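Service request form, structural biology core

Requester: graduate student, group of Dr. S.
Request type: structure prediction, single chain
Budget code: on file
Notes: please return the result as structure tokens.

Sequence provided:
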Amino acid sequence: MDIINVRVNEVDKKLLESYAKSHNKTISDVIRESIDEIIENEIHLKLYQEGMKELEKDNTTYTLDEVLKELGIKKEEL
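Core staff response, request fulfilled:
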């Protein structure tokens, strides 16, 4: 695994240490999970925005039953 150094001030360091300790995690875990969450949220936001643009073009929506029927899938098969 690669190592990345991050410089933080003393206040941020203490905050990270305190948070990590209270959640029984390492500082590396806290930073890694935070970065993953930020990236995931940004991806979800982009997908949402793209979906809303498509919905503005054609606001046709379908119920789950309609989709299953179109695909030939029975609810029991889910």
